[in-house]
């Protein structure tokens, strides 16, 4: 990792805008990457709880067999909007928020490359989700076709809210593309002199590659929703065999977006873990360059594996084999990463602060999610697992104990840098342990009911699954409630607490740890020199 | 990177993004309602909301670009800033390429898989026999499995003229660009004007072609997968040509009325020019895969 001669934060007196403006308009008109990062993070936290509340509805209904709390159509709306909100409203904005805060500080840039567009990419997001949430209250209800909006569910059998769904997804896409362009241009163009590509912190590297994936696939999603719109409202037949199209075509287009999308939600997580593990192991990251190459390999492979979501659609055998083998190939670079994290910890002077605890939990639990993914990659086995709770268990291990845990780890890691205060360690540890136990009570039994054949996205189930589902729901409620502790920790940390040093963590290295805590409103107005 | 560091300009607060966000909200919410209204033959306020959104976005663009132009003319931008703009525009064009990619993907899938399979190819013999035994798998698909009939658009005539027009327009725009780089302002104005003229002729001919398709050939957006891909691909392309022509017209007025742009500093012109060439390349792909093959 690079070191610097002067942190160059003492230059901001001689410029016209030094401090942060006051009042609500500061947040609405801001062009400051730290403000916009905070907005993204707060918005993502809000969405996390709204999407989480929907998950609670789902788990309450599934607590017992039979239909007791909600109508099946409302249940479908909950699964759909829970998925959309968690993917586009919680995980992705959280990573963009972290990128906004940390990338310019990590590469010695004065701000993001295009600060006004940065504001625009954030402020269109709340409006997009406003439209999506409002559609729940429309006549006929909100979208109920699953977050994957497969045709013909979204075309022939969907309600009037579909048009609102389509346009809100368009806005989410515009936001992601503009955000990604900003990140990629910042990294290419605003690195401080001496910050060569192979000196960049891994969080910056993973975000560079993520941004490329976003620009490549979000437009494809826009194409998919546009075809759904014309199929539903303007009598086209892209996804209807009667007009020469094919419902399976929808799945091809959707998953060509959807598979890179899942890496969009995990590559920045890899970056965060690669920042945290070396700090608390007091050792440089093991195999830095192999981490970079592994990330790039995962990104390239992500474009060649989309149809492993579609093994049961009746693809030609050659297609099934191709997608099976390429999917399995992804475990190689991913294995390199897990190996490197473990090797970084090997013989390190380990301490177990909260960010490190979340990171270690990430490494173990994400690996479980990876291994169940490998099981799903085997075509003949997937015929059995497809559309069962096994799939639900798999992607929640990857997304909750993977992406969300890494976001929590990153938030605890950088919170002292953002606020200038140390957080309440005891409360944070309680949050960690409650989350760790409850998340496994929540998702681990799903493997069993899934393998036994319980289908996903159905509000009722056969009675033999009753005991496991009750346990799962209890885990779900416990996990949901535990997250309130996170809000308490963050709130207390913003309000006060022990003063944080510039370096914050003993073993932390990199430019962001050489500026004061809290980080001044403008950092690196003239670039630092990197040796 | 040079050792002489010019400060990177970070603008102070700006009202335009939030105006743009409200504009986009009105467009999305208005369009969502409008699509429902139109297809059900109802009337409502949604159309007005959509219109208000579009006007808000135009207002936002004018204000935002005015700020950027003023800042640039006052010499607040460094060479590094210029690179940010150029890279940003390049990535934007890449995202557009991927957007068209989705529709080209649909076209190739229909031609290589869905239509032949409906005709019984690969292992789909029984699908063909059971569902639509009379269906014949040909491309262009002039008769869909459920019996919607249409005619195929040939490549000679209007489409060929349009191809030639767009190809020439790329060349004329390049001449204009060369004129700007060598500070030959009249060469710039003449060739830029010619490009705009060619763009407008293209659009008029495209409308002509659509009218011909709808009135005389019965080729419509709803004419099965052939009509779907034909109209969405050429339609989105036409939309991009329209946008590109508007951008060129704005460049023309900036050059003629305000004497903007210098041989060294002309990002706005360059971005417009890149966009135009991109639209041209998309048309060449369209001409080959939609019209000829």
Helix- and strand-based class of chain B?
Answer: mainly alpha
Question: Taking all residues together, what is the mean pLDDT of chain A?
Answer: 94
The chain-level structural class of chain A is mainly alpha
Name the poorly predicted regions of chain A: 1-17
What's the CATH architecture name of the largest domain in chain B? Answer: Up-down Bundle
The percentage helix of chain B is over 70%
What is the total domain count of chain B?
Answer: 2
Oligomer: heterodimer
Corresponding CATH architecture of the largest domain in chain A: Up-down Bundle
Largest sheet of chain A: none
Q: What's the main sheet of chain B like?
A: none
InterPro entries (chain B): Cyt_c/ubiquinol_Oxase_su3, Cyt_c_oxase_su3_dom, Cyt_c_oxidase-like_su3, Cyt_c_oxidase_su3-like_sf, Cyt_c_oxidase_su3_a-hlx
Subcellular location (chain B): Cell membrane; Membrane
Keywords (chain B): Membrane, Translocase, Transmembrane, Transmembrane helix
Family (chain B): Belongs to the cytochrome c oxidase subunit 3 family.
């Amino acid at each position: 990792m690079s070191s610097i001669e002067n942190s160059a934060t003492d230059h901001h007196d001689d410029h016209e805008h030094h401090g942060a403006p006051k009042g609500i308009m500061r947040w609405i008109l801001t062009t400051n990457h730290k403000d916009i990062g905070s907005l993204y993070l707060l918005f993502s936290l809000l969405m996390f709880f709204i999407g989480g509340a929907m998950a609670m509805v789902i788990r309450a209904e599934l607590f017992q067999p039979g239909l007791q709390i909600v109508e099946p159509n409302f249940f479908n709306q909950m699964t759909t909007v829970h998925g959309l909100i968690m993917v586009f409203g919680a995980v992705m904005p959280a990573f963009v928020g972290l990128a906004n805060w940390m990338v310019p500080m990590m590469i010695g840039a004065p701000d993001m490359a295009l600060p006004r567009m940065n504001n625009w990419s954030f402020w269109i997001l709340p409006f997009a989700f406003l439209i999506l949430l409002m559609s729940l209250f429309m006549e006929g209800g909100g979208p109920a076709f699953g977050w994957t909006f497969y045709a013909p569910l979204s075309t022939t059998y969907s309600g009037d809210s579909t048009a609102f769904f389509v346009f809100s997804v368009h806005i989410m896409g515009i936001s992601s593309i503009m955000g990604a362009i900003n990140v990629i241009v910042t990294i290419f163009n605003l690195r401080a002199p001496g910050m060569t590509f192979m000196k960049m912190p891994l969080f910056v590297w993973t975000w560079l590659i993520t941004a490329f994936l976003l620009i490549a696939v979000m437009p494809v999603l826009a194409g998919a929703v546009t075809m759904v719109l014309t199929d539903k409202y303007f009598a086209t037949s892209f996804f209807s065999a009667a007009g020469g199209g094919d419902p399976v075509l929808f799945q091809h287009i959707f998953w060509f977006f959807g598979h890179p999308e899942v890496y969009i939600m995990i590559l920045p997580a890899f970056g965060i873990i690669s920042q945290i593990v070396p700090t608390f192991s007091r050792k440089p990251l093991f195999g830095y360059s192999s981490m970079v190459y592994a990330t790039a390999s995962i990104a390239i492979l992500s474009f060649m594996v989309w149809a492993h979501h579609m093994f049961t659609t009746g693809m030609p055998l050659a297609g099934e084999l191709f997608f099976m083998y390429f999917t399995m190939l992804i475990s190689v670079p991913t294995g390199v990463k897990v190996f490197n994290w473990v090797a970084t910890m090997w013989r390190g002077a380990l301490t177990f602060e909260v960010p490190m605890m979340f990171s270690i939990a990430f490494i173990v639990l994400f690996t479980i999610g990876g291994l169940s993914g490998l099981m799903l990659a085997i075509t003949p086995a997937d015929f059995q697992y497809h559309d069962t709770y096994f799939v639900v268990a798999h992607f929640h291990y990857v997304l909750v104990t993977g992406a969300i845990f890494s976001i929590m780890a990153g938030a605890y890691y950088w919170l002292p840098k953002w606020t200038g205060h140390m957080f309440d360690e005891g409360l944070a540890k309680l949050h960690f342990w409650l989350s760790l136990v409850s998340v496994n009570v929540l998702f681990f039994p799903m493997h069993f009911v899934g393998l036994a054949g319980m289908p996903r996205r159905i509000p009722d189930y056969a009675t033999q699954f009753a005991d496991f589902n009750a346990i799962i729901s209890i885990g779900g409620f416990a996990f949901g409630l535990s997250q309130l502790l996170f809000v308490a920790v963050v709130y207390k940390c913003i309000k006060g607490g022990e003063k944080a040093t510039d370096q914050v963590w003993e073993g932390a290295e990199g430019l962001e740890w050489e500026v004061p805590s809290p980080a001044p409103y403008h950092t690196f107005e003239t670039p630092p020199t990197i040796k | 990177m040079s050792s002489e560091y010019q400060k990177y300009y970070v603008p102070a607060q700006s009202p335009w993004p939030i105006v743009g966000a409200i504009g986009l909200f009105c467009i999305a919410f208005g369009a969502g309602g409008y699509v429902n209204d139109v297809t059900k033959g109802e009337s409502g306020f949604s159309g007005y909301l959509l219109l208000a959104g579009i006007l808000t976005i135009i207002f936002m663009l004018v204000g935002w670009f005015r700020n950027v132009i003023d800042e640039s003319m006052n010499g607040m931008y460094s060479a590094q800033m210029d690179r940010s703009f150029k890279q940003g525009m390049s990535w934007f064009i890449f995202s557009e390429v991927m957007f068209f990619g989705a529709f080209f993907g649909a076209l190739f899938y229909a031609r290589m898989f869905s239509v032949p399979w409906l005709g019984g190819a690969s292992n789909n013999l029984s699908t063909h026999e059971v569902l639509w035994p009379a269906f014949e798998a040909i491309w262009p698909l002039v008769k869909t499995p459920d019996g919607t009939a249409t005619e195929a658009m040939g490549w000679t005539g209007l489409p060929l003229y349009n191809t030639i027009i767009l190809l020439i327009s790329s060349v004329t725009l390049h001449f204009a660009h060369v004129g700007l780089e060598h500070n030959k302002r009249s060469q710039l104005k003449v060739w830029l004007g010619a490009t705009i003229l060619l763009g407008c002729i293209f659009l008029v001919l495209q409308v002509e072609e659509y009218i011909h398709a709808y009135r005389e050939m019965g080729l419509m957006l709803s004419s099965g997968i052939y009509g779907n891909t034909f109209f969405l691909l050429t339609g989105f392309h036409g939309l991009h040509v329209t946008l590109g022509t508007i951008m060129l017209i704005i460049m023309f007025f900036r050059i003629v009325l305000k004497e903007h742009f210098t041989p060294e500093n002309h990002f706005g012109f360059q971005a417009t020019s890149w966009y135009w060439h991109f639209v041209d390349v998309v048309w060449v792909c369209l001409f080959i895969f939609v019209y000829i093959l």
